Amino acid sequence: MHTSPAKLILLSLCFQGLTLVPAFAQVAPADGRVGTPLNASVPSTVANATAAPATTTPSAAATNVTSYVLGSEDLITVRVFAADDIPDKPVQIDNDGTVTLPMIGRVHAAGLTVEQFQANLITAYKKYFKDPQVTVQVNDFRSQPVSVAGNVTTPGVVQLRGNRNLMEVIGQAGGLRADAGDSVLITRNLNEGPIPVTGAFTDPTGKYSVAHINIRDIMSGKDPEANIMIKPHDVITVPRARLVYVLGNVGRAGGYVMTENETMSITQAIALAGGWDHMAAMSKARVLRADGGPQREQIPVDLKKIMENKSPDLQLRPDDILYVPNSMSKQVTARGVEAAIGIGTGVLIWK
Question: How far apart, in whole angstroms, are the C-alpha atoms of residue 321 and residue 314?
Fold first, then answer.
């Protein structure tokens, strides 16, 4: 009796007490790694033999999203099983919303979900096959761009892959930066309908709906309904937070965020910064304020008198720098402080 080489290998492994785990019997463990065999005791040689090599990155891999609405410029792959004369090469949906496929010619795709388009193709191919098995995969999402600008980790264009809310899209852009403001600005083409939040308005051209949404209220659970669904071609702008900088001989130097509709006094800023250290020259502090000119205005501040209630507590403005010098310092200059901290770069942001 002739035995194939594959069977001989299988018998040999069984005699050695090894257990083969099929490549499809794999799970993602709690640590998030993908591709770990279900049986952790499988020898590495067997596990490696059963695991498929990773030849593409997740972004390049074809993805089957049945609820995704297809559109122009999306790249898809249509497979008809047991039909060798129909190549399964990626094709792009044209600007008119159609795609040309073997045997059935041009068919409409834009505006249909992947599941709906797949059902239509099954009907179309029944003219040529008794029981056609058709699958549609999306290789590249191109038809539903959303622009995310401003203070996010990776600003740019992201693609909607099905229904996505505001927080999910910001997550696609890498999330908020530490110096992001409390609210975001959303601009939407009125063809997609007005933005469904209180305070949304139409811009002067009459073409766009515009709304400010407080993202901190969403994150805190105060206003979860503001986490609206995002539409294709929306523009999301995340502005920079209003910051006050506290630098010098303090416990925790850096930039401190001024939340919406809030002011910050010198005593509040000093408290946020953890107070001053024993080397601080309290009577020589300065507020460096941009006044629109090439240099900052210097406002003398005597912290000791303020703390003793002998001098008024100054209200700080966005981008003010409260600088507490060392008692050994002979002179404080606005230009020197700005050069030392490299304002806007490399300064820790505290919230």
Answer: 13
State how far the Cα of 161 lies from the Cα of 92, in Å rounded to an integer: 17
70-89: string of b/e by CB count within 10 Å (b at 16+)? bbbebbbbbebeebeebeee
pLDDT tens across 227-255, in order? 999 999 999 999 999 899 999 899 999 99
- The CATH architecture to which 147-238 belongs is Roll (3.10)
Supply the CATH classification number for the domain 242-350. Answer: 3.10.560.10
**Residue 335 phi, psi (nearest 5):** -65, -40
**CATH class given for the domain over 75-140:** alpha beta
| Strands 296-301 and 285-290, sheet pairing | antiparallel
Tokens of 189: 């083409």
How many Å apart are CA 189 and CA 231, to the nearest integer?
A: 9
pTM: 0.64
pLDDT digit string, tens, across residues 108-162: 999 999 999 999 999 999 999 989 999 999 998 889 999 999 999 999 999 988 7
- Tell me the two tokens of residue 276: 């001053």
Kindly report, as residue ranges, where domains of CATH 3.10.560.10 are found in the chain. Answer: 147-238, 242-350
Measured CA to CA, the distance from residue 29 to residue 45 in angstroms comes to 20
